Amino acid sequence: MASVLGMLEQREVAARVRVEGLREEVARLAGALEAAEIELDRRVIAREELVEALAASAAETTAVTGVEAEQETAPSPAPVPGSIVPPWRDGLPVTVLAPDYQRILGVLDERQLAGRGPLKAKEITVELGLGTASAKVEGVRSKARRLAERGWLVQETSGMFSAGRRPVPAPDAAPSA
Fold first, then answer.
1. Is 174:63 a contact under the CB 8 Å cutoff?
2. Residue 50, CA distances (Å) to 45, 53, 54, 79, 133 in order
3. Is the pTM of this model over 0.85?
4. Residue 74 neighbours by CB distance under 10 Å
C-alpha cells in the first residue's frame, strides 16, 4: 500500500509542476498580448493622424485651387466612392462612402428601424463583429465621429451615436478620408 501511495504522491508532484509551468506560460503570453495590443493601438492612431494631416494638406491645396474652380462654370465632380467622407446632402447615396463607413451606418439604421436607441462606439464595434479590443473600438469611434461631423449620423452629448441625416455646411469643402 505504501508504494501505491508513493506513486500517487509522485504523480501529484508532477501535476503541480506542470500546472505551475502552464501558469507561467499564460502570464508570459498575457504580457505579450498586452504589448501587441498597445502596439496596434499606436499604429491605428498614427494612421488616423496621418490621414487627418493629409486631409488638412489637401484642404489647403483645394482652397487654393478652389478659387480657380469657382471661376469656371463646370459643376464639381461627384465624390469618388470609398475615398472620402463628403458632407451629407439630400440625394447623396450611402455608396459614396467606404465599406467600413457603410457598415457603421447600416448598424445604426437597422437599430433605428427596430425602434431602439443610440449606441456607444463599443456597442457598434460588437454589432459589427469586431470584438471589444480597444484598437477596434477607437477605430469605429473615429469613423462614427467623422460621419457625425459630416451629417451622416447624430452624435449625442453622451458620446452615443444614432442614425439621422442632417445637412452640414462645408467650410472649405475639404472632407477627410
1. yes
2. 9, 5, 6, 21, 22
3. no
4. 6
